[in-house]
Each structure stands twice: as C-alpha cells, then as structure tokens.
Amino acid sequence: MKASIIAIDGPAGAGKSTVAKFVAKRLNYVYIDTGAMYRAVAWAAQDKNISPANEDAMAELTRTLSIQLYYRDGQQRITVDGRDVSEEIRTPDISRIVSAVSAIPAVRNALLDLQRQMARAGGVVMDGRDIGTCVLPNADVKIFLIASIDERARRRCLELQEKGFVTDLEQLKQEIALRDKMDSERELAPLRQADDATLIDTSDMTIEQAVDAIITEHEKRY
Ligand code: C5P
C-alpha cells in the first residue's frame, strides 16, 4: 500500500497534535507539527529582540535562520540554529506573539518550502492551519478538527498547569479566541476548512475516538 499524506487542520487547542501523534503511531507514519516551526521563528524573534511588526527585520531573520526537526524517543523536537528549543516554544509568551509572526509572508514562504520537502516521500501526518488548503492541497486525507472554545481552553489550561504555568481560564479563552481570529483573518493562507476536508468535532470525544475517526477516514480511501 502506498504511504499516504494526512493533513489535519483546525483552530488552537482542538487536539490536533495529540490526535495526529496517535494517528501517526498507528500507521507507522511520521508526525510533523508545523505550528512548532512558526513557534520556533517567534522564539528566535523574541530571543533577538525583533518585533513581529518589523517585517523587514523578520524577513531577514527568517532568511538566516536554520530550523530543523528531529525525533528523539519517538517525539518530534525542534532546533533553531542548533539549539533545542522544543520546550521554550510552548510558553504563553510565544503563544501571544506567534500569530503576528505567522502572518508575515516571508516567514510563511520559507516554512512552506520546508514543509513540502518534508512531506514529499509520503507516510506523514502533518498538522497546522493551512495544510489541506495550501501546503499540501493534494493530501490523501484532509481533516478539519474543531472543539468548542470552552473545551479548548479547558484542555489548554490543564496542559499549561502540568507544565507549571499559572493560568486563568477566562484569560486563556480570550487569548485562544484572539489567536483564532488573527489566524483566520490573515491575508495569506488563513485558517480555513478545505472544501474536501472532513469536519470532526472533538468537544465530546475522547482522544481514542478522535483517532479512530481519522483512521476510519483513512481506511475509506485505501
Ligand atoms: O499549532 P500551534 O497552536 O502550535 O500553532 C501556533 C501558531 O502557528 C498558530 O496560532 C498560527 O499562527 C501558526 N500556524 C500557521 N500555520 C500552520 C501552523 C501554525 O500559521 N500551518
């Protein structure tokens, strides 16, 4: 059987990465988290004190940056100029600036090339915002994963608490809603369900049920 390409898009906190990882494991595919790549650029901008509003400086930064994904103990990790930033890119500070960074055309174009190269051989589950619409419009299976804003904020809150961050649920809800708005309203490759994507609402689903639903979609086509 030919190794296929599965694209999973959706708003922040819908469970994309958790579910995508399990789907990849079940199929023995590689999981590629494209959000981590945008977060890595945002981290580098913060590290170098570059404002995302300064598009020229952001374009120059992106040109000189080396972002690499690698896998350790089955987990995707990411480096920026050789430094492993896998944990640092997950802080609330980075979440607050990443949508402004990802709206910059030079940033998107650089990462787009990288993402397409990574998917070329097939056998991948790639998650993000524009995978089915823009990065891999010919993906074999396209999923648009959603959940209610309350449920997404609750999940993100638990995740952050486990990592030791003090979080306020209401504030988190507002931040997630703002990020979705920015991601949906940007000009280039906005967050949108592809016409041929299957919508899955995970609000009342367990992780296992969401994984099964995607595997079923995959099996329908193979
Ligand atoms: O998936 P995650 O929430 O980590 O993504 C962080 C941010 O990266 C998103 O809010 C969005 O601004 C950007 N992103 C994007 N396109 C993708 C993946 C992520 O614009 N394919």
Q: Can you characterise this structure?
A:
There is one protein chain. The chain is of the alpha/beta class and 222 residues long. The chain has helices spanning 16-27, 34-47, 55-64, 92-102, 105-119, 131-135, 149-162, 169-185, 207-221, and strands at 5-9, 30-33, 67-72, 75-80, 83-84, 124-128, 141-146, 198-201. Strand 4 and strand 5 (83-84) form a beta hairpin. Bound molecules: cytidine-5'-monophosphate (C5P).
Number of strands: 8
Number of helices: 9
Gyration radius, to the nearest Å?
Answer: 17 Å
Bound molecules: cytidine-5'-monophosphate
Task: Describe this structure in a few short sentences.
This protein is an alpha/beta fold.
How do the strands and helices of this protein lay out in sequence?
Layout: E1 5-9, H1 16-27, E2 30-33, H2 34-47, H3 55-64, E3 67-72, E4 75-80, E5 83-84, H4 92-102, H5 105-119, E6 124-128, H6 131-135, E7 141-146, H7 149-162, H8 169-185, E8 198-201, H9 207-221
Parallel strand pairs: 1-6, 1-7, 2-6, 7-8
Antiparallel strand pairs: 3-4, 4-5
Bound molecules: cytidine-5'-monophosphate (C5P).
Residues 12, 34-35, 38-39, 98-99, 102, 128-131, 179, 183 line the site of cytidine-5'-monophosphate (C5P).
Core attributes:
dCMP kinase activity, single chain, 3-stranded antiparallel beta sheet, P-loop_NTPase, 222 residues, alpha/beta, binds cytidine-5'-monophosphate, 5-stranded parallel beta sheet, Rossmann fold, cytoplasm, EC 2.7.4.25
